[in-house]
Specification:
The complex is a heterodimer of chains A (479) and B (226).
Chain A lengths: L1 H6 L2 H54 L9 H6 L7 E7 L2 E4 L12 H8 L4 E7 L2 E10 L4 E8 L1 H51 L13 H51 L6 H31 L8 E4 H11 L4 E4 L7 E4 L1 H16 L5 E8 L2 E7 L35 H11 L3 E6 L7 E8 L22
Parallel strand pairs in A: 7-9
Antiparallel strand pairs in A: 1-2, 1-5, 3-4, 4-5, 6-8, 9-10, 10-12, 11-12
Helix pairs in contact in A: 2-5, 6-7, 7-10, 8-9, 9-10
Chain B lengths: L3 E5 L3 H13 L3 E5 L2 H10 L4 E5 L7 H11 L4 E5 L5 H8 L4 E4 L4 H12 L12 E3 L2 E4 L4 E4 L2 E3 L3 H11 L8 H9 L7 H15 L9 E4 L3 E4 L2
Parallel strand pairs in B: 1-2, 1-3, 3-4, 4-5
Antiparallel strand pairs in B: 6-7, 7-8, 8-9, 10-11
Classes of the chains: A alpha+beta (479), B alpha/beta (226).
Chain lengths: 479, 226
């Protein structure tokens, strides 16, 4: 139970407590009201009935004597005070006289009452008469050895009490509901600022770093809001500072890199003037300058995602031709398997998708050169798979392999390849920007090796195109 | 006298290696470090190709480009810091024929310059005049007339127009045009074609907003019609 209780939300718990309180309070009120009303009404009715009994007994005592002809008793009865709910019954000289024998006769009188009256006492019993609540009273009339009984029905009192009970129950239910509603309202009132904080925290987490809370009307919440906004501001400042720093560093490095690379090219153009030793040194310098350039380019590229300036320069492409061209323009060799596909129309950013393909090929080339690239159409997706002959990627590394500078256990060796440690992160970022997704799995043919699969949304062709050199840009700036 | 190249670059080290690399190609290179000096030099003696860095102190690269374009139809290559910014389109709009992104390989620069210097001879021999409605092209003389009036087009624009004119009515994709006019492979930037087409339209179309001669074939490319 406590665990269930704790699992309920604060709002549910507060509502529940309010409702329970309201219910208990209204049960208490209803019970006391009903008890009090019942006691008063019934006692009142009983006293009045007894008073009538006594008055009628006195009347009978005056009228009856031992010479009274039993035939005259009906006449004497007519002088008694009788209501529609009271029924007189007289035992005179062992003869029973009733006004309504069918409703009330000597058989209806409890034996105990008869005994009491026989002993000379007036008595009354609360019982039922013909299934209706009633008082049955008896009083001896000592002068004429008679006993007078009267039954008084109390069903109207019971009826009144029943109606009262319904009303009180209704009020109790209404009170409980009202209490629950009050609880729900109060808790929502309390929780609304928390919900706003939660929403703001979520949009912060989603990357909207300029999210702030409005100052609350309630002074009690001002400190919470202020703390939250301070935190958000600090976070935003820090992230922006980091991003600006990376951007500034990378940009500052471009000019020296430009000079470095161009100087190396000038030297390479004139390398026949160099000695063999110098030429070897120049080749080493060239290799590392290329790697360094790639690293800076990749850093700048990924930095655009961090500062939020990455924008898609999308055009219509045929992925089959595109991948064929990418492989042809890359230093890597790969077998392209397109099955029986002729075109795979997509919308994409050529520069970014070229990096995706090239980086995947570069990554796969670390493990041997007979790469396999497979293109397929699956539902509304164009799928591009690159398979290598490496050891594969263990399941627990399949997410982190796309993190920056993460090198899987199998890929820790550097040295060959132009890998910057950013290649796969850029693949994931670029594919994400296109609204697609990338994953790594085992090769499907059972051989050892990794299979990287990129999925991009297929473009629904609006024109029925032939394959003859048709995939071209539909640039936004086209008029 | 060989090919003269004017290069405007405020970073002295880059300017020096670019000069070296282009001189290795056998070209004569004049390097200047400000836009003002570039304009002075160009009006003194016109170059065959101009290389302009956009980020220049004082008169910026766009302004230098526009000023030179007013004087001459010389091929201009813009150098930008980033390929995915508005700079590329703005540079092309300012009149540049092509662009490069820093850091570029000098081999790439030479290839771009060679493509711009290449004289197109795609005209079938003997065709001295091509007429498309009120549009008249004289390939041998490099003259374009609209309704009998001569229109001034740059060398690149002229080559672009001739590509269409030799295959009238045929749809040419942006890739095809990039390859034939600019010598780019599959991965060339289509924006170069789009901006040139747009500029060509402002010169030869009576109403550039609804072109009659160079029309867009959605998803395919462009074609020339009468």
């Amino acid at each position: 139970m406590p665990s269930v209780w704790r699992r309920l939300g604060l709002q549910a718990r507060i509502t529940f407590l309010f409702a329970t309180g309201g219910l208990l309070l209204s049960i208490l009120m209803a019970t006391s009201t009903l008890t009090f009303a019942r006691r008063n009404l019934i006692e009142d009715r009983r006293q009045r009935a007894f008073a009538v009994l006594v008055r009628n007994a006195i009347q009978l005592n005056d009228r009856l004597d031992n010479e009274t002809d039993p035939e005259d008793i009906d006449l004497i009865f007519d002088t008694l005070t009788v209501t529609e709910r009271s029924f007189p019954l007289l035992n005179f000289q062992d003869r029973w006289t009733s006004e309504q024998t069918l409703v009330f006769n000597e058989d209806n009188i409890p034996a105990a009452l008869v005994d009491y009256v026989a002993e000379g006492s007036a008595a009354r019993i609360t019982t039922s008469l013909n299934d209706k609540p009633a008082f049955i009273m008896g009083i001896p009339i000592p002068g004429v050895e008679a006993a007078y009984y009267e039954a008084a029905l109390a069903d109207d009192v019971e009826q009144a009490l029943r109606i009262l009970g319904i009303i009180v129950t209704g009020v109790a239910v209404a009170t409980t509901l009202l209490a629950a509603a009050t609880g729900a309202w109060a808790s929502r009132r309390v929780l609304t600022p928390l919900a706003e904080v939660r929403g703001a925290a979520e949009s912060l987490a989603a990357g909207e770093l300029d999210t702030r809370l409005d100052p609350p009307a309630d002074a009690d919440l001002a400190s919470l809001t202020a703390s939250f906004n301070r935190m958000a501001r600090t976070l935003e400042d820090r992230i922006e500072r980091d991003a600006r720093f990376a951007s500034a560093v990378s940009h500052e490095l471009r000019s020296p890199l430009m000079t470095l690379n161009a100087s190396i090219e000038v030297l390479q153009n004139n390398c026949e003037e160099l000695s063999a030793r110098s030429r070897t040194a120049l080749d080493l310098l060239t290799d590392d300058a290329i790697r360094f350039t790639h690293l800076i380019e990749d850093l700048l590229e990924i930095n655009r995602y961090d500062v939020g300036t990455a924008s898609l320069h999308a055009e219509r492409l045929d992925l089959v031709e595109f991948v064929r061209q990418c492989i042809a323009h890359s230093p890597f060799s790969a077998n392209l398997d397109v099955g029986n596909l002729s075109v795979l129309p997509i919308t994409g950013d050529k520069r970014r998708l070229k990096q995706v393909v090239t980086n995947l090929l570069d990554n796969a080339t670390k493990y041997g050169h007979d790469l396999r690239v497979e293109l397929a159409e699956q539902d509304k997706w164009a799928s591009l798979a690159v398979e290598d002959h490496g050891p594969g990627v263990p399941p627990d590394e399949r997410e982190i392999i796309f993190d920056r500078f993460s090198r899987g256990s199998a890929g820790r060796h550097r040295g060959h390849g132009t890998g910057t440690g950013l290649g796969l992160s850029l693949v994931a970022e670029h594919v994400g920007l296109h609204g697609g997704h990338v994953k790594v799995e085992d090769r499907l043919d059972g051989q050892s090796g990794a299979r990287f699969v990129v999925k991009l949304a297929l473009r629904v062709p609006r024109l029925n195109l032939d394959t003859d050199n048709v995939e071209s840009a539909e640039h936004k700036q086209e008029t | 006298m060989g090919t003269r190249i004017l290069t405007v670059e405020d970073d002295e080290r880059i300017r020096t290696v670019v000069e070296f690399a282009l001189e290795d190609e056998g070209w004569t290179v004049e390097g200047v470090d400000t836009g003002e000096e570039a304009l002075r030099s160009f009006s003194r003696s016109a170059a065959d190709v101009v290389l302009i860095d956009i980020m220049l102190p004082g008169v910026d690269g766009f302004e230098v480009c526009r000023s030179i374009r007013q004087m001459s139809d010389v091929p201009i290559v813009m150098v930008t810091a980033r390929a995915d910014t508005h700079d590329v389109v703005a540079g092309l709009e300012a009149g540049a024929d092509d662009y490069l992104t820093k850091p570029f390989a000098t081999k790439e620069l030479s290839a771009r310059i060679r493509a711009l210097l290449r004289r197109t001879r795609t005209t079938p021999p003997g065709s001295v005049q091509m007429i498309f409605g009120d549009l008249e092209i004289l390939p041998d003389q490099g003259v374009v007339r609209v309704a009998g009036r001569e229109v001034h087009v740059t060398k690149t624009e002229f080559r672009l127009l001739v590509e269409f004119a030799v295959q009238p009515g045929r749809v040419l994709s942006r890739e095809t045009l990039l390859g034939r006019v600019w010598d780019y492979g599959y991965f060339g930037d289509n924006r170069i074609v789009d901006v040139h087409i747009r500029r060509l339209r402002t010169k030869i179309e009576p109403d550039p907003a609804s072109p009659r001669h160079i029309v867009t074939v959605r998803g395919l490319g462009y074609k020339l019609q009468a």
